[in-house]
């Protein structure tokens, strides 16, 4: 995905956005027609629960229809409740990719982060 980081730790009056990317890519796989991608990052010792997914969904919806993709990065993965809730999002007009520490580590060691990102996109689209 050709994107540029536009802001980190962006605070609005009601929320904090960890990373906001502007999607400027021409690749049809990533061209959503919406300019913004919101990235939520958690470097916790435990896996992330469902209420954090709900929070990311809210952040996406609060962008006046200008965000069609979110990415949730959790170094220690996601709870089963998070995964179940994520599976119910297939009918929404946005997509949420998930990444964990093992996947990121393997992608970096293989020097192939692009393939990892593409795989996470496929999982989000078809394997929930």
TrEMBL record:
Residues 12-82 form the Restriction endonuclease type IV Mrr domain. GO terms for molecular function: DNA binding; endonuclease activity. InterPro entries: Restrct_endonuc-II-like, Restrct_endonuc_IV_Mrr, tRNA_endonuc-like_dom_sf. One of its GO terms (biological process) is DNA restriction-modification system. This is Restriction endonuclease type IV Mrr domain-containing protein.
